[in-house]
Write a structure and sequence with these properties.
Elements (H helix, E strand, L loop, with lengths): L1 H24 L5 H7 L3 H4 L1 E13 L4 E12 L3 E7 L5 E7 L2 E2 L2 E4 L2 E10 L4 E10 L12 E6 L5 E6 L21 E9 L3 E4 L2 E7 L4 E8 L10 E4 L1 E10 L2 E10 L3 H23 L9 E5 L4 E2 L5 E3 L23 H8 L7 E3 L6 H19 L1 H10 L26 H14 L2 H14 L3 E3 L1 H12 L4 H9 L5 E7 L2 E7 L9 E6 L2 E5 L6 E4 L18 E4 L3
Parallel strand pairs: 1-11, 17-18, 18-20, 21-22, 23-28
Antiparallel strand pairs: 1-2, 2-8, 3-7, 4-5, 4-8, 6-7, 9-10, 10-15, 11-14, 12-15, 13-14, 16-17, 19-20, 23-24, 24-27, 25-26
């Protein structure tokens, strides 16, 4: 009886722990999350045309002050709109036609009231003046905010990283990925003697009367908020040219002066081969007008459009490590390749909601394999992407909850890349696969998208039924299990651990040293198998991200 009682107590404790874990895993979203993540009528009522961001950065006081001019077109009649700025930063005033507008704040949202209705189709503008001490990132780039750092010589080295966290942590904007401003002038003022680099092309540099220098950079292409950036420090600058599909692409390299002798040969080894590979697979670099820049940053890296942040310490791999454990991950600098790959997936094609960030990360993670393929062949690329599976957690689905500014699982990198690789096997035609990747970048050029748009495009262009495959890998944590039994020269097989209707074909070894395509479903099927194949040496093609499980039927 004591043993039974103890067992019951243990069982109840296990149930309680399980219930507690489930409760912990269930996200609790707030009004602030909705204000940040939802495209409400107060945001969709105006379409951004142009920003002029003008900011002075006081490094000693860790203080910023300045303004942002919003130029917009009304998409409907309105007299009230929302923009965003973190609550720790003060909105000093909002000016429209030389008059101050009333506003109120709720969490990080700011609501502005106009004196009369702005009619649909009207082009107008207002300017927000603000100041304060921005959030300082604790562990950039994973935790967003400012980075106030120093180089080895003790000089200031300052930047920002805010993906997911929100660009409104340091400047006022419509902080929603669905609306990319068409162009932006970025004016950053820094203490005299320091250089400042931002996105786009440098238009001018002006000495101010207060001992600061203002750098004016213009971005002529649409840009998402979180990739608008700056880098401040003692830099060395050199240039080069890449002869690409759309002509000559300007290359600008900015490393700290003290690291320039190391940076030049290191970046030279990867950048032009990377651009050649990615233009082959994805199409022309999306921002020829703004050029390509690689800038040394005081954090690991970020896909800042036309000004890619680099902080990999001039090491091969990921800080000297091979994320794939295959050996191939040490043949290139992970940050140079990965963050530059985002120029196509993330910056050219941007998701409307960060719940769909797999579109950014899955294809970009796969770009590492495609670069490896360009340099070392297809077998090396397969080994690389298969090796990445060791990093998959299968903790929560890759697609996150919508309208609350919440990403899904970090598996959007490694698992997402393996989903793309699996779909490539199903297409079974590398030219068609390449056409699809290039077609994505052409069809959704400089656009914001949804998961549905990307899924539908790939399905239509491939001619394959892929809905259940996307459901399986993006919306569940279950890995398809090919259940099988070999008996009397017959292979019996079916899918398990899958979504309803999952019927993905897969290649398996029915004959020695070759793979044959079979089409499992939920119901057991049977096929003849070579006598040399037993349950001990039966294999599935490792390029498919699945698991095998021997069972007795």
């Amino acid at each position: 009886m004591k043993r039974i009682f103890s067992s019951v107590i243990c069982l109840l404790l296990l149930i309680s722990v399980a219930q507690a874990q489930l409760l912990q895993k269930k996200p609790a979203f707030t009004r602030a999350d909705t204000l940040r993540g939802m495209l409400t009528p107060l945001r969709s009522c105006y379409d951004l045309n142009y920003y002029h961001l003008d900011v002075k950065i006081d490094i000693d006081q860790k203080f910023i002050s300045g303004s942002n001019e919003f130029n917009f077109t009304a998409t409907e009649d309105f007299s009230l709109l929302q923009f965003d700025l973190f609550s720790n930063l003060k909105v000093e005033k909002v000016i429209h036609k030389n008059k101050e507008l009333p506003f109120k704040r709720e969490f990080n949202a700011v609501f502005v009231t106009f004196p009369e209705t702005i009619k649909k189709g009207t082009k107008d503008k207002f300017t927000v003046y603000y100041s304060g001490n921005p959030v300082i990132a604790r562990r950039p780039p994973w935790d967003g905010g400012f980075i106030f750092s120093k180089d080895k010589s003790g000089n200031p080295w300052v930047s920002v990283a805010c993906q997911g966290f929100g660009a409104s942590c340091w400047w006022p904007n419509k902080d929603h990925q669905s609306d990319e401003v068409d162009s932006v002038l970025i004016s950053i003022s820094v203490p005299k003697g320091l250089q400042e680099i931002s996105n786009g092309r440098l238009r001018s540099q002006t000495a101010r009367s207060d001992g600061y220098t203002q750098f004016n950079w213009f971005v002529s292409n649409p840009i998402n908020n979180y990739t608008v950036t700056f880098y401040i420090g003692k830099y060395t600058h050199w240039t080069d040219t890449f002869k690409g599909e759309k002509g000559n692409l300007s290359l600008d390299f900015w490393s700290l002066k003290e690291d320039s002798t190391q940076a030049r040969p290191h970046w030279d080894a990867d950048v032009k081969p990377m651009l050649k590979s990615f233009e082959h697979w994805f199409g022309p670099y999306p921002f020829y007008e703004d050029g390509y820049k690689l800038v040394q940053a005081p954090h690991l890296g970020m896909e800042h459009q036309s000004a890619v942040a680099y902080g990999n310490e001039f090491k091969m791999g990921y800080l000297g490590e091979d994320l794939s454990y295959s050996g191939w991950g040490l043949k290139f600098d992970y940050i140079t390749i990965h963050e530059s790959g985002h120029e196509w997936f993330g910056n050219n094609i941007t998701t409307k909601d960060i719940a769909d960030m797999w579109v950014h990360e899955s294809f970009t993670d796969y770009s590492e394999a495609l670069f490896t393929e360009s340099q070392h062949g297809k077998d090396a690329a397969s080994a690389y992407v298969i090796g990445l599976r060791a990093n998959i957690s299968n903790d929560i689905p890759i697609i996150g909850p919508y309208d609350v500014n919440k990403e899904g699982s970090g598996d959007m990198y490694y698992k997402g890349a393996n989903m793309v690789h699996t779909i490539r096997q199903l297409i079974n035609n590398d030219e068609k696969f390449r056409d699809i990747l290039r077609g994505l970048n052409r069809t959704f050029y400089h656009q914001t998208v949804t998961t549905a748009q990307i899924e539908n495009y790939i399905a239509v262009q491939s001619g394959l039924k892929l809905d259940k495959i996307f459901d399986q890998y993006l919306r569940t944590i279950k890995i398809p299990v090919l259940s099988y039994q070999i008996k009397d020269g017959k292979l019996s097989y079916r899918w398990k651990n899958t979504v309803n209707g999952f019927d993905m074909p897969v290649k398996v070894m029915l004959k020695k040293d070759s793979y044959t395509l079979i089409k499992p479903g939920a119901v057991i099927k049977t096929i003849s198998i070579d006598k040399d194949i037993s349950e001990k040496n039966f294999k599935a093609d490792p390029n498919y991200y699945i698991e095998l499980k021997k069972e007795d039927y």
